[in-house]
Amino acid sequence: MSTFWSFWIIILTTTNLVLLFWILMANRRRAVHGEESTEAKTTGHEYDGIEEYDNPLPRWWFYMFLLTFIFSIGYLIIYPGYGAYEGLKFKDAPAWTSVGELRGDQAKAEKVYAETYGVYSKMPIEEVAKNPDALKMGFRLFANNCAVCHGADGGGNPGFPNLTDKDWLYGGTTEKILETITHGRKAAMPAWLQVIGEEGVVNVTEYVLQISGNEHDAAKAEAGAKVFAANCVACHGADGKGNQLVGAPNLTDKIWLYGGKAATIRQTVRDGRNGVMPAQQELLKEDRIHLLAAYVYSLSLESN
Questions:
Q1: Domains with residue ranges and CATH for the chain
Q2: pLDDT digits (tens, 9 = 90+) for 132-182
Q3: Distance from C-alpha of 213 to C-alpha of 107, rounded to nearest angstrom
Q4: For residue 274, which phi and psi values (nearest 5 degrees)?
């Protein structure tokens, strides 16, 4: 924190406390002024026939306000809240910080998780994927971290792969699933409009429809085959069956990441696509990723 902002907070905090204390003391008066006064004082304000008494706070209430000031001073001594002041240090312990408390709570939680998840972390994923108790925990991890993109059942959404079939962009082995969850993925389908033009976009779309077994324009597909051979085979392969090393999808089946209609394919070719699978290694840690990978692996086993 800079010196300016430190002094700004100190001045603002002190000014507020002083003003609030002054307001409290300025309004502390006796309820009856003089022994002969028998009529209660009012502020002179009247709202719909209701007058406002000019009485001081009850004594117990006033003392409670005083206690809040005492508490505030004690709080600002113990905790960092007064500019750059770090708070009171006890013996060898560092001064309190919200980050330090968070890290401490996380460390305690990790010990508990290690006892729960650690049982399965040394087991092969193939074995964990057949354990009902482990799959229950894996399902909860999936529901909390993955379902928003891949769906509650793992069936996927436009732009987010279906995890329940045998079609894998980067590979469906347990090692590849672990790698994907741990480190994430960044996929990129470049935009081709400036390279092949709109006619090329239309023609190559018809070719993709042809090799995937869908209705297509044969003449345009023939022209599109040349466009495909010149520009697309580097990633999708000469046969269009994809390349898991770069995450290029198989174009010859009925499985589509963004949709298999002609208009959608043209949009993909024309404008490109960018997909991101965020890395989970910092959020979930190794033992939970192991369980989650086993659950994802089990989803594909069910499709047999």
A1: 1-30+40-96 (no CATH), 111-184+278-301 (1.10.760.10), 188-277 (1.10.760.10)
A2: 999 999 999 999 999 999 999 999 999 999 999 989 999 999 999 999 999
A3: 54
A4: -135, 115
